Amino acid sequence: MSDFLWGAATASYQIEGAAREDGRVPSIWDTYSHTPGRVLNGDTGDVAADHYHRWPEDVEIMRELGLGAYRFSIAWPRIHDQRGIDFYSRLVDALLERGIKPVATLYHWDLPQELEDAGGWTARDTAYRFAEYAERIGAALGDRVHLWTTLNEPWCSAFLGYGSGVHAPGRTDPVAALTAAHHLNLAHGLAARVLPGPVSVTLNLHHVRGEDADAVRQVDAVANRVFLGPMLDGAYPADLLEDTEQITDWSFVQAGDEATCNAPIEVLGVNYYSPTLVRRWDGVAPRDTADGHGDGTASPWVGCADIDFVRQPGPYTEMGWPIDATGLTELLLRVHRDHPGVPMMITENGAAFDDRVDANGQVRDQRRIDYLRDHLAAVGRARAAGADVRGYFVWSLLDNFEWAYGYSKRFGVVHVDYATQQRTWKDSANWYRDFIASSPEGPRS
Ligand code: PNW
C-alpha cells in the first residue's frame, strides 16, 4: 500500500451555503460579500454549492473518484452551536466509512464578524481565540481527523484582507497587514499545540523569478519567509525587518512569540497556481500594474513600492494567471533545499476555465486536463530530484464561490449548475479518477 495521499480540496464559505442555519453566526465574508461593489455581480456565499445539505451526494462523488483524502475547511462561525459541530462530525464519519481520510483546515478565511469588530487579525486576542476554537473542535472530532491544517494561505488573509483590501475584511493598511501576518503566525503556533493529532499549515508560496536578485529576495521575504521564518525556524528574517523598517518597528512581536510560532508540523501544505515575475522599477518607465501598483488601488506588497510585478507571457487560465508548471518543480526543490527535513503536500493546484455543459450533457475541459497533467508531471520531477512530496489535492472538487470573483470562475473537476445545484462530472474528473487509479504511489516524472 502506498502512503501517497490523492485528494481534492474545498473550503467552507466557498461551497456550504446555509449561511444562517443551525446557529451559524456571520463571518467577515458574509459582511464583505453583502457590501455592494466588493464581489463581482454581487454574488454571496449564502447558498453557494449547497454542500451543507448535499454533502452525502458530494461524498459519494469523492468515493467514485477514488480519492484517498478530502481536504475541507471547518467554518469557525458554525462552532458556536452544537448543530454546526455535528455537521462536521457526520461528514468525517461518512468519509471514514468510505476509506477517505479527512484533512481538516481550521481557518479558510471565514473569521466570525464579532472578532473582526474587535480588531480581527490586527488584534492579538484573535490568536488566543483561535487556539480556543482549535481546542474545541479538536476535542469534538478528535482522532477521526487524519491531518489538521491550522491556516489556509495566511498571506491572503493578511495581505489581501488588510493590505490591498480585495478580500474580507477589505482594509487597506500596510501596518495592519504586517500585524495580521504576525497574529496569524502566532495563531498557528498556539493552535498546533492544542490540536489532538498531526498538524500542518498551508501556505500559498510564491515562486518568485526575475533578473534582479535583490528584488526577488525582497518579494520572497514578504511573500514566503514572513511565514516560513517564524513557523519553521522560529524567527522573522532579518532582511524582512530591514525592508519594512520605515513602515513598522514590529513592536507587535512580543518576547517569546517567535518561539511560539515555531510548532512542530507533520507536513507543509503548498498551494501553487502560477509563478511570480518581478523587476526593480527605475522610477521612470511606465509601471507594470499586474498587482495594482500605479493604478490607484492599494497593493498587497508591503514595502515593495519600487518593484513591478510583471505580466508574464501566456497562455493564461480564466483568472488571467499564466500557466507554467516549471515553477512548481522549482518551488518544491527550493523548499526542500531550505527546509530539508520538512515533508510537503500539494494542498491546492488547479485552474479556472470557462466550462459549459454541452448539449450532450458533457463538459469538455481538455485545458484543465492538460494543466493537471503538466503540474502532476512537475511534482513527479521534484520528487525524482529528492523533494519529499506526500500528497496532491486538486483545487477544486466542485465549482464554487471564487471569493471576489463570485461564481464567475469555475475551478471544479465537477461542474455545478447553480440554478439547479446539479453536479456534472467534467472530463477532467474522469481523467483524474483514472490517473489516481493508475498511480497509487503518486506522480512520477
Ligand atoms: C486560493 N492571489 O486563493 C484559495 O486557497 C482558494 O480558496 C481559492 O479558491 C483558490 O486559491 C483559487 O483562487 C487564492 O491573489 C486567491 O495570489 C488569491 C491569490 C492566491 C490564492
TrEMBL record:
One Pfam entry name:
Glyco_hydro_1
Task: Tell me which UniProt keywords the record has, alphabetically.
Answer: Carbohydrate metabolism, Cellulose degradation, Glycosidase, Hydrolase, Polysaccharide degradation
| Origin: domain of life | Bacteria
> PROSITE patterns recorded for this chain?
GLYCOSYL_HYDROL_F1_2
Q: Which reaction does it catalyse?
A: Hydrolysis of terminal, non-reducing beta-D-glucosyl residues with release of beta-D-glucose
So what EC number does this one have? Answer: 3.2.1.21
The UniProt family comment states:
Belongs to the glycosyl hydrolase 1 family.
Please state what the protein is called.
Beta-glucosidase
